[in-house]
Amino acid sequence: MPGIDTSRTFIPLNIAVMTVSDTRTSETDTSGDVLAERIEKAGHHLADRVIVTDDLQMIRNQLRTWIADAHIDIVISTGGTGLTGRDVTPEAFKSVYEKEIDGFSAIFHRISYEKIGTSTIQSRATAGVAHGKYLFALPGSPSACKDGWDEILQYQLDNRYRPCNFVEILPRLQEHK
């Protein structure tokens, strides 16, 4: 049965949050607030937090900065995963992936479907691995961030979660190097 093994010691991770938006500010970034609050409540460290405009190169540059930072383990973004012309977050993420985590999108859509029905088809949530880091791109709504964290990430980013989790294999992500 899946669940938290309380006999194991929790390992806090350093997680960076990127909000992708042309309109949000630090005062109006409710989706970024949702992620930051949940990250810290879970016992992880909020390593960095930025707002980046919907610009492919700017998103890619921020990802590369964090990928190169030895003090960051995980990147989670919110916003820019839709279908409009300005929504380029998945393209930026996929341009830096070494491996895509296809199951993340599949599970996210299953969870989202239960709440918003077929409207979930408009999201291009994605996840992957780059240079020993996990990268997750969530939609820009606070409810989508809650779903992504509460239903997937809080478990997979907790080394105590059984039968397996992303934390256990984090040290092995660069075995090919």
Q: How would you describe the overall organization of this protein?
A:
The protein has about 180 residues and is an alpha/beta fold. The protein has one domain (about 15-170): Molybdenum Cofactor Biosythetic Enzyme, Chain A. Helices cover about 40% and strands about 20% of the residues. The protein has six helices and eight strands; from the N terminus they run E-E-H-E-H-E-H-E-H-E-E-H-E-H. The strands form two sheets. It has a six-stranded mixed beta sheet, with helices on both faces. Strands 1-8 form a two-stranded antiparallel ribbon. Helix 1 (about 30-40) packs parallel to helix 5 (about 140-155) and helix 4 packs across helix 5. It is globular. The model has no long low-confidence stretch (mean pLDDT about 95). This is Molybdenum cofactor biosynthesis protein B. It holds the Pfam family MoCF_biosynth. May be involved in the biosynthesis of molybdopterin.
Write the layout of secondary structure elements.
Blueprint: E1 3-4, E2 14-20, H1 30-41, E3 45-52, H2 56-68, E4 74-78, H3 89-96, E5 99-100, H4 102-116, E6 126-130, E7 133-138, H5 142-156, E8 161-162, H6 166-169
Parallel strand pairs: 2-3, 2-4, 4-7
Antiparallel strand pairs: 1-8, 5-6, 6-7
